[in-house]
Amino acid sequence: MRPEDIIIRPIITEESNMGIQEGKYTFKVNKKATKVDIANAVEKLFEVKVLKVNTITVKGKEKRVGRNVGKTSDWKKCFLPGYIFYHGFDAELLMSSLAMPNSRIWHINSS
Q: What are the backbone angles phi and psi of residue 100, rounded to the nearest 5°?
């Protein structure tokens, strides 16, 4: 998989915004991606060294429309609790992409 296919979008919530101030970032990722795949994708897209990757699978919620009951799909979330920044890393570029939930800034930077 390409790095753009692994990292789907950043997670923007009140809790994740508090984590950003501490250097912790949260992303929605492909369900089939492993921790190694996620680390490699983030390293390639943002030019940083990933120290650790934590992942969880978020279970889908049960939804109901009238008498029909269905379920939203499960998805995977990853937490990146710390980075070692490389010399040429642009922190403002990462922060601007995290501030826009539908931003696909990493598609622009990759070939």
A: -110, 105
